[in-house]
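lol ok so funny story. i was supposed to be doing the assay writeup but got distracted and ended up predicting the structure for this chain instead. priorities right. anyway since i did it might as well share w the group, maybe its usefull for someone
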Amino acid sequence: MNTRKLGKNGPAVPALGLGCMGMTGIYGEPNEPESIATIHRAIDLGINLIVTSDAYGAGANEELVGRAIKGRRNRVLLATKFGNMGLSGFKLPEGLSGGHPGYVQQACDASLKRLGVEAIDIYGLHRVDPKVPIEDTVGAMKKLVEQGKVRYLALSEAGAATLRRAHKVHPLAALETEYSLWSRDVEKDILPACRELGIALMAYSPLGRGFLTATIKTLDALQPKDRRRDHPRFNPDNLQRNVALLQPLESIAAAHKVTPAQVALAWVLAQGQDVVPIPGTKRRNYLEQNAAAAGMALSAAEIENVSSRGCLGHALSADATRRAGHMNLPGPVSVQRPWGRPEVGARAKMPVGFFDSPAALEKPRERDVCRLRRLRGKARFQVTLSLSPQLALHA
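and the output, tada:
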């Protein structure tokens, strides 16, 4: 496996990492033996950047990873995160929150215990805490480096301004955030900020939460407990519209005799040596397909083709973000129904396309992204983009 540098101040890492979130029941039923076998196979293939979080399964994911890497620690670059209290469900003492300096040490010690290690290679803040200045949170994380409990620092889902402030306190190795042919809002200001500061981008969901594999064309492809069933872009009506938008990806895949997923990963890899996709899987066969994508080279014409057509192009390169209570959508866009809740943190994303009513937005939590999770009512939210078919995304 070829390697890349994780930012100016970080370690050398494989071109692909392994995201472990789905191994503890987020997407369908868990299978621990196969998940552990997948981690072992990843290490053998040189995909030794293993990414987890204390929020996945309320610590269960870290425990699984800890069991998997036992006896293999010296072959692994271990990345975990803290501070996503909404997802983890952890209850904190009064006065503390996900990014509070008083909680940072507690969270790290708990992760070290669950993982069964003496130090974490890359320790990240999973969601920026709106109650705490980022300088205070990163200042507490810096102390972990000084104590030898952590080697490198990262943020997740942070905006450009937050990155700059955090980086002044201690150099960041990486920003972990969503980036794929289906989610490109980072290209406007976040990715340029990373490059200005020498911070790598660890791209999670580089396969569009599985949609870009072209294997989820009906809800029957998802298990009953798969949480993607609650995502508006996988709503049956939206999914039916979106499937037609995969054609450029499938055409290139057929020409190369590879899978659409491999083309989608090759596209992310082609965006720069400072971009490290971390596709998640809990199965060895998918892991091996992902690994093969690291050796695939798309031509400039193919990259342009898949970047500029339909939902995989202009619609996504538009800055579909919501800033300070209003939407900033450059280009030929017609919005029928904007929503106006102010963003919580330094980065917020907005879905584009066919969507159910966003009348019920989640309450502000300790996070840097305002995600639309619960949707009620039968109304439609529509955005029409003149250069592309209509599509559905979930930010």
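The longest helix spans residues 101-115. Confidence is low (pLDDT under 50) at residues 310-395.
back to the writeup now i swear
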